[in-house]
């Protein structure tokens, strides 16, 4: 399975807010870089280490899980004075300096910065987050597929995704089939490609399967999004799609959505949540809109 960083779109140069606009390192970036240099003993030849540490902080504040050294090597530094042509070091020289620094370790080491074999530099905490998440997803993917009534599923797919007669692959239908036959599923697509419409139909298919199984327990469905605005958009989309579904499943699809923090029960003034690995979320199905967040 590819790591989380493989799935992200990492820019091929240091990001700018606007074309031609220069972005400075923040005081946080600079203090962090100074700290990493001190941890490594200081001395001469620490400029590549300082720059890498500052860039890790710089990128993390922009939502990136790591610094992709091959992508930024020999590109202009964000703090370069216009016209000076100051650039990041060549990749081989840069990684060599980092591998020699005491504050930089390889995957599995307990160091402030982690440098992997592909030249991706992480804050230790974010490297650990990535590995734990990848492990949990891998474990779920490797589980046996859920048992489904295939005849009922086939009928539901034909009914909810009738097609337009063009003979083209219906990727919404493919996504629904995948979601019903796998333990973990990511549905991706640009705006207007029908992701939320597909999710509502997937929920209908799951509810039909549950009813056919004879289970007296209703499926517990959780709908969430990263922000309040996104949760409100998800709620509006789900309510719109519910009105088009069969009345037998319509009422079992929740009309309420929550932010992830609210859903997991964020504990005030702490980084912890009420629901966690030891106290699982009471839901049979969890739908997270905008998984990349």
Q: What this model shows, in words?
A:
With 293 residues, this protein is α/β, with parallel strands linked by helices. 43% of the residues lie in helices and 8% in strands. It is built from 12 helices and 7 strands. It has helices at residues 4-7, 27-39, 47-60, 69-72, 91-99, 124-141, 150-160, 171-181, 195-212, 228-242, 247-250, 260-264; strands spanning 67-68, 104-105, 113-115, 120-123, 221-225, 258-259, 285-288. The longest helix has 18 residues, at 124-141. It is elongated, with a radius of gyration of 24 Å. It starts with a helix and ends in a 5-residue tail after the last strand.
List the main descriptive attributes of the protein structure presented here.
293 residues; alpha/beta; three-stranded parallel beta sheet; 12 helices; four-stranded mixed beta sheet; elongated
In short:
This protein has twelve helices and seven strands. The protein is of the alpha/beta class and about 290 residues long.
Portion of residues within helices: 40-55%
Q: Mean pLDDT, nearest integer?
A: 86
Q: C-alpha Rg, in Å?
A: 24 Å
Q: Whole-Å distance between the termini? A: 20 Å
Unreliable segments of 5+ consecutive residues = 1-21
Largest sheet: 4 strands, mixed
Strand sequence of the main sheet, in spatial order? 1-4-3-2
The SSE order reads HHHEHHEEEHHHHEHHEHE
* Overall 3D shape: elongated
Strand tally: 7
Strand content: 5-15%
- What would you call the structural class? alpha/beta
Number of helical segments with 4 or more residues: 12
């Amino acid at each position: 399975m590819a790591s989380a960083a493989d799935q992200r779109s990492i820019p091929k140069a240091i990001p700018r807010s606007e074309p031609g606009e220069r972005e400075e390192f923040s005081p946080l970036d600079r203090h962090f870089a100074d700290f990493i240099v001190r941890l490594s003993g200081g001395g001469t030849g620490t400029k590549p280490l300082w720059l890498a540490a500052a860039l890790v902080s710089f990128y993390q504040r922009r939502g990136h899980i790591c610094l992709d050294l091959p992508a930024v090597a020999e590109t202009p530094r964000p703090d370069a004075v216009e016209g000076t042509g100051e650039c990041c070091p060549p990749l081989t020289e840069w990684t060599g300096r980092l591998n020699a620094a005491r504050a930089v370790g390889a995957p599995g080491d307990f160091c402030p910065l982690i440098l992997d074999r592909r030249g991706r530099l992480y804050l230790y905490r974010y490297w650990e987050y990535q590995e734990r998440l990848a492990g949990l997803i891998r474990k779920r993917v490797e589980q046996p597929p859920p048992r489904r009534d295939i005849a009922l599923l086939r009928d539901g797919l034909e009914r909810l995704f009738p097609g337009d007669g063009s003979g083209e692959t219906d990727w919404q239908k493919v996504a629904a089939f995948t979601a019903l036959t796998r333990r973990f599923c990511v549905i991706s697509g640009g705006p207007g490609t029908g992701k939320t419409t597909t999710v509502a139909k997937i929920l209908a298919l799951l509810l039909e399967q549950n009813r056919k199984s004879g289970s007296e327990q209703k499926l517990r469905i959780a709908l969430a999004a990263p922000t309040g605005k996104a949760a409100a958009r998800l709620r509006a989309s789900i309510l719109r799609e519910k009105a088009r579904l069969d009345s037998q499943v319509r009422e079992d699809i929740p009309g309420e959505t929550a932010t992830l923090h609210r859903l997991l029960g964020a504990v005030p003034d702490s980084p912890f949540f009420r629901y966690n690995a030891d106290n699982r979320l009471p839901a049979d199905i969890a739908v997270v809109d905008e998984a990349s967040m």
